[in-house]
């Protein structure tokens, strides 16, 4: 059982049994804080602690640093693999190297020259055949040589066109998928490295630190405990007859030893009783039932309050 809640019950029972709080309209409550426990999902040795108990931090400030040699190495490896995959994809998109394309163009030019010679030779053999000087066999040889050179020129033109186009679409798609996977691995490695050095996400005082540099911090174990102002609230237990007069959003006045009264607003009404008498309900003992009420306060006031601090809360007295 929560000690503070038990003490609150003890404070309320005399009010319920000996005097009616409706007469004064004041109940005793306490300050409650919902702490934020900052931890890393990865374990490691605590290298440094950037904050101390009682410090006030701002968003973006570093909190602590865990050993991250392994994570740094993994990030470097993933970055290098991603760079290699990117280079492969760029190379496939470019096609053949410029020197290879130049070589193919030279071969094509040579083949075109050979074709021109074969054309002239075929024409000459045709003329000689008509004059009865050349035989049919010589004419056939010239014709065959011409067709061979034509095919060679056609082949080199196709090779040059393919070389300038680059790799096939499916090869480029596969290389693109590989690059995406490598880049995802880089992001994961970068995230893991960042978890070794958490930073503050909001302004808050440091309530406590749980480790000292040099200690091993298990994965998920809190290292720094924060108490943001928006997590500070007032708790009070009200008698059952008051419930009909209270609702979320109602205003209240809170005061305490050595502090000026300040405003608060009801943010929560418990639907269940916190104390049930050992006898059947009746009009005489129903005031012994108490219900939890939570109030929120302005952040400028919350910074001056301390969890467990007793306070007095005044509501508009309900009708009996």
Would you write up a description of this structure?
- Helix 4 (98-131) runs antiparallel to helix 5 (136-165).
- The strands form 3 sheets. The protein has a 6-stranded antiparallel barrel with strand order 1-9-12-11-10-13.
- By secondary structure, the chain is an alpha+beta fold.
- It has helices at 3-18, 21-24, 69-94, 98-131, 136-165, 169-195, 299-302, and strands spanning 26-33, 36-39, 44-49, 56-57, 64-66, 204-209, 216-217, 222-226, 232-239, 251-256, 259-273, 290-297, 310-314.
- The chain is rod-shaped.
- The chain is 44% helix and 24% strand.
- It contains 7 helices and 13 strands.
What structural keywords apply?
320 residues; alpha+beta; Elongation Factor Tu (Ef-tu), domain 3; OB fold (Dihydrolipoamide Acetyltransferase, E2P); 6-stranded antiparallel β-barrel; 4-stranded antiparallel β-sheet; 7 helices; 13 strands; 44% helix
């Amino acid at each position: 059982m929560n000690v503070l809640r038990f003490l609150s019950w003890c404070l309320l029972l005399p009010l319920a049994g000996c005097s009616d709080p409706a007469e004064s309209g004041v109940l005793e409550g306490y300050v409650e804080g919902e702490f934020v426990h900052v931890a890393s999902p990865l374990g490691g040795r605590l290298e440094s602690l950037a904050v101390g108990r009682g410090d006030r931090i701002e968003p973006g400030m570093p909190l602590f640093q865990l050993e991250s040699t392994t994570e740094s190495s993994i990030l470097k490896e993933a970055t290098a693999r991603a760079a290699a995959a990117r280079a492969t994809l760029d190379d496939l998109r470019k096609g053949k190297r410029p020197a290879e394309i130049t070589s193919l163009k030279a071969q094509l030019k040579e083949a075109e020259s050979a074709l021109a010679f074969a054309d002239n030779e075929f024409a000459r053999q045709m003329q000689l055949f008509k004059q009865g000087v050349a035989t049919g066999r010589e004419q056939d040889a010239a014709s065959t040589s011409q067709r061979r050179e034509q095919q060679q020129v056609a082949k080199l033109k196709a090779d040059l066109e393919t070389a300038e186009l680059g790799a096939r679409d499916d090869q480029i798609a596969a290389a693109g998928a590989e690059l995406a996977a490598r880049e995802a691995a880089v992001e994961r490695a970068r995230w893991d490295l960042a978890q070794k050095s958490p930073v503050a996400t909001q302004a808050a005082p440091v309530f406590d630190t749980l480790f000292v540099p040099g200690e091993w911090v298990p994965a998920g174990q809190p290292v720094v405990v924060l108490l943001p102002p928006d997590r500070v609230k007032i708790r009070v237990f009200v008698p059952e007859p008051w419930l009909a007069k209270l609702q979320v959003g109602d205003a209240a006045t809170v005061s305490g030893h050595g502090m000026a009264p300040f405003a608060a607003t009801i943010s929560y009404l418990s639907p269940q009783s916190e104390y049930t008498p050992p006898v059947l309900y009746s009009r005489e003992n129903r005031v012994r039932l108490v219900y939890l009420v939570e109030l929120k306060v302005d952040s400028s006031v919350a910074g001056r309050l301390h969890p467990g601090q007793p306070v007095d809360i005044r509501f508009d007295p309900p009708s009996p």
